[in-house]
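Note to self: keep these together.
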Amino acid sequence: QDLNLRSNTTRKLLAIGTMSFPMEELGTFWKDGSAQAYMVVVSTAICLSFARYFKFQKQSTTMLSWLPPMISLCVLGITWFYIFRFIATHIHTSESYFGDAYRDVLKDEGQYMISVQLLTWAIVSVLWMEDEGTVSDLVFIGYGFLGAMGASFVLWVPSLYWRMDRSRLARNRSVSLLSAICAAVGFLCIVNIAPCSEDELSECVQSKRFGAFRPSYDGWLHGLHYVLIVPALGKVLPLPLSGIRVDAAIVYFTASIVFGLWHFSLLASSSQTGLSFVLSTSMTDCQISITTDMVCSCLITVFAIYRDTLLYAQAGWMGKDISSDNAAKDAAIFQASVAALAVALFSPGAVLAFHLGRRCVDDVHMKVVARGQQWVANKLRSEALSPKENKMLQESGAPTWCNLGLWTDRKGNQKSLYDEACEELALSLGKAAALGEGDGVLCCGCGSGPELDLYKDRFKVQHITGIDPDMDRMMDWENNRLLKGGDYNIRRMTASVEDLSSRPCQQLFGSKLFNKIVALDNVYHYRSKFNFFQDCKALLPPGGTVAVSDILIRTDDVPQWVKFMLLACGLQGHNLWTENEYTQHLSDLGFTDISVQSTGGNVLKGWEKFFPKGLLQYLDYSIVVASTPKADSKSQQKTKKVAVVGSGLAGLATAHSLIMSTENIEVTIYEAYNRPGLAGNSTWYEGHLIDIPPRMASKGYYKEYRKLLSHLNIPTQVVEADCTYYGTDKKSGENKTFASYDISNTLNNLAFALFEGGISNLWTLGTAMSSIKLEECNDDDEKSPVLTFGDWLKSTSLCSTSTPDSFEMCQDNPFLYLVIGSLGWMLSCTYQQLMEYPAGIILPYLHSLYLQSMQTTGDGSVVRVNPSVKLMEQSLLYGVKELKCGNPVSGLDDKKTIDGIQYDAIVCATEARAISKVLKNAPKAFSEVKYHPSIIYLHTDESFMPPNKKDWRKWTVEMKEECDEPQLSFWLNEVYPDSNFCGNVFQTWAPLHDPKPDSILKKASFQRVVHTKETPRLLKEIEAAQGKQGIYYAGSYTEYGMGLLEQALISGRKAAQRVLDNEVAVSEEMSAKDQ
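Structure:
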């Protein structure tokens, strides 16, 4: 039999080289329009997949990174060769290439076993990509569905691992409920496309070439492919159930059990033995194609298990003993070998699903343990509270304690209440860490974070951040605390200790932001204590301190039943250290001044009623403290003092950038008003903090601003760009709506474009927008006159008059009316000032709107901070030593002294016109910067909206010929959809008339910078003044742009970088002198 098998296989391999190909029939196929469209789509998907692979291939350091593309091309070439030959062979006889190709690979029992293994693997792989892939990874799905599944995933899997770090491995995984349902339906489809048995032939549709199948075969086959595509669409479209997440472990393990048992039952009941049968018989073209794809899926599965095991071992999550490269590779090879054997018995899909589920099981286990701890803590807490008090505490959402507690304090006093014992343990840890004024503290695994407020209040630390993977449940309470003016130097973040080594956390924390790291009663739950201390060593500055309270074992000789019970409680075996092991591990990592203080009797005695004494006798509880080596006096950096004058976005961005830098910088902010400036005019109304002005950010222009929101994890809300532009008709003299847009009413928008706006006007505007050449928009050439926006309008066909500052021209083209009105309120200036703006400022902004389809796609193109920009203000203030509001600064000179404190550098982040007050000898350029005053009303006067209520939109712009600037009104009931205001509430900029006195809720005044032809010259003079005598400048007016939040943010970052560059230069100069 073995010789016969080899002979048949050899004959088939030799036949490949002598195969004939029906080229004439294939040419007929290529003439089909649908075939041509298919090739265009699949070719695009393939090219994008390879481009994405090579994007991440740069992160690889091995020559083997070229192997996946070669395998992918080989698999694609083999599968397509046989598929196309099949099509060419049956082009005159087949009614459906798709259906007949699948009939061909499913028609007999042996090949059916091979084919369904690939199909179930496809279900699991789609779940995997939905769980861990990004939207950009969907190109691999297109490649897989239209090309070859194995060829696609042989590219995606390596690219996934190249971007995977320890924090990504450790994150909680979930899949959408929609994807889980699709997987179940997909499996049902696979079961129902089986060929008919001999007993069912009378009820089936038979074919001489492709066997017998049930009449419902085509429906189930198409349904299978539809449900495999739906999860991918759910990543980009708001499909039903796509927002509901379920634990990935449940889905994966269910799929593994169902697929594994089903495939094993097929193998056990079959008279034909799968792959060996296929290789010993003559296979058709489609059978060769799908078998090649299935073999590739097996290799991908084994590779994924090898790679994951290697990453887990190297991360230390399988124990420190196998974290070395050689030991990790040995463990990975062993796991991959076991997986290869399992694939033959249970299918690659079942094995891959089991592996992915096993990766998630630790997270599920820890969630169960955490919920159990919280239940016990609430139970103990409720014993000291009345039912009413307990209910009020739970409804408030306030932080609550959840640790083992110190039941006897140092004075021997017994603690009978659970919260008192928890607080006592927290205080003991804080004292051991020597927390005090000036300390920056990172509190790891803090739960809801009650110790954060305790340490800030009791030890007066400068700032403290608490991280916990389950912190999302506290964010509503935390945001509400910040909105009400809570301490900005207390911060809660959703993150795990595994994130400490990730780049985003390193950027968010800063390399010298914390000098103390504490972990209160949770380090024994970490995946690897050794890695945690290693990350602390990297994050702390010289002389920094790490302090933890931890469960220790008294001896290495611990019975297995004890280890099993501890594992059930979330304590992994490689995290169980004795006191000597603790000291040795910390010493190996380079820590000094290591102290292990046992408090076991005072902690564990409180839990004697929960755990058997036989278990507790093997355990101890200690507070462990260690320090990083101190720097010598020569290399120790001196702390620099920087004052920032002004607390708008420019000033806050400056302070934030300095604090997050690698330098030792202490920042103090001075603000003339009694509140920080970014949210200084925000006001409470009916339980909502309303921003004045509302801070909207479009995708096309506010790139850095929106990146900052994402980086700081600031919640945002999409604001659909529904708008109405109306005013007085020059012919009738009555109010008329000239332009409107409603994102939810496509027909209305189309009707406006066709019948009111006019196709010719739209074409004219589109042509003008598309002709903008950004490289010609700069005004750096001093010899050439500055081109104004009015000059540009004259040069286009948009302007029908010789005076582009005339209001009449706007009514000739409703689309131009919309543009002029938008720019007028965006810049808060008059029409005349708008026409005198440099075109180099206006045109790039218009170009960005044109590319983003006027920012009205509804996909998050326009967002606002939710609920208020106050959250951003508080986040940017974190780490500031002192915010001195109501403290105007004036008369500064080269001594840089404010209130008796001398600073190394000062950043003036005020309006340009205020510089002359702040500085004793201010450069003349600042007094030449132009401003335009504006007024904003928060009110309930409906006369500021169009007369016809059907024209009301989220924002409404009114333009009148007798008024020199447009009026903008926001309908806040729509901007704040969850507000439930008692009546209609509006916010109006530059009102054309005063609101009714009894409707006014708040009036605010502000100044907006106005750019002119002189702007390029003024900016050069301001640039030349930067850094002189250690004084720097930040503000939207210092950047060549629209004078919006984007420019304010950029200017603040630049000012901080100038300060840092100067400090580095000074340090290098001093080092050179010392040498």
